[in-house]
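Lab notebook, bench 4. Still working through the backlog of constructs that have no structural model yet. Next entry is a single chain of 449 residues. Request: give me the structure tokens for it.
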Amino acid sequence: MIELLSFGLRELVNNAKKANLRRAHFLERGLNIGNEADNKEGMATFVQDCTAFAKRYAEVLVANDLYLKVTFLVRNSTFYLSVRNNAVPTALELQDVRNRVSRAWTSGTIMKYFDASPSEPEAGLGLPTLVLLLRKLGLNQQAFDLGFVNNETVAVLRIPVSHSRPEIVDEIAEEISSVVQSIPPFPKNLQNLFQLIEDPEVEFSLLAAELAKDPALTADLIKYINSAQNRGHKRIENLEEAIRIVGTQGLKDLMYPYGAHKILGEYLAKQKQLWANATQVSRYAVDLARDLRFDRHEKGRTQIAGLLYNLGQIVMTFLYPEQSLNILDFCRKKKLSIELFDELTQSINPASLGALIAEKWRFPDDLVQLIRHQSRPSGAPELLQGAASAVYLAASLRSVELGLLCYEQISEEFIALLGLDLEKVQETHERLKSSNPEEGEQGKVLQSH
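Model written out:
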């Protein structure tokens, strides 16, 4: 339960610290926090003053004995984590917090929470997220309590020591099913090509002729193959030559991300950064696969899984743009990975959604499994764990660049599957950043759709 406890401790301590600082701020300015006009005036300058006069405010906290206490206790097979401070909350503050906590218990998922409170600011997501974590672990409302006792604000987590964390099971809810149903089918012309490629005796000229029926696809696919598969080599000028160089399996592999992003053109139109992220993750994953001496087939799987790693996130961000932006800001400030946030709050998990979409499009099972287990490589079939770990690490390094993670939050368990440790990961990342551009021709080709 380390993710739950560490997040819960940070959240409750930060809330108590902010409450104490607010009191110090109001004392310094001679304002009454319980007076509506004073409250409005004080809150308008709270953040700026706390930053500008941090040393002075630390002295005010001590002078007014504004303290914060953290207690860990095990009693009668129950673990108690309590955080208390002596900044007396106003009735409005206490009611606001209790309302948010109550809505979280009732909502059950982060998306339903947003539906119930669409104007909720990102800064107010901490306690609701904690409640959703508790729900995910099968705990009830007795697991968390917030109140005012003996002139102290007290927040308490109560977790039975015997309560083992259940295995994370993806719930294919009605909402997920409706999202998947709304995705268009895979392009018919690409389906026809897949059928031809399945024939081991198929002639390259026949494949080229089938592709030539769609001139736009032909031109874009040649550009795509040049950027994705042939960096540093002679440029490919026609499809038959392309097929001879990359092989039928290589052509088939590259058609999966090409077709996926062609279908999702509408979804990507206003969020091209997501595709830029995918191309960067794929480049990192391929370089890792090369360093780790993956065979050609495994390297190809790693590359394609990297290009499709955020397939579900692309759809989710399109369907829930405001909520997704709030969640992204929240995760960045809390140093909480988006995958962990989704997994533990029972919101729609992007990796699971991406896998369901891939299944609808009848992608190979290996590719579906890599998409599904990209954030939990040890759950993938044994033969796929190397590729899944490479994609996981590549995506984690990209998250470090975007400010969503720090290196210490990358799972040592999963990078150990690649024979690496955190020190080696940091060294590798520096090398990858110096040798990989932010976005290559692949992104430009697919963004044109």
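Notes after review: The first strand starts at residue 68 and ends at 75. The chain has 23 helices and four strands. Flag for follow-up if needed.
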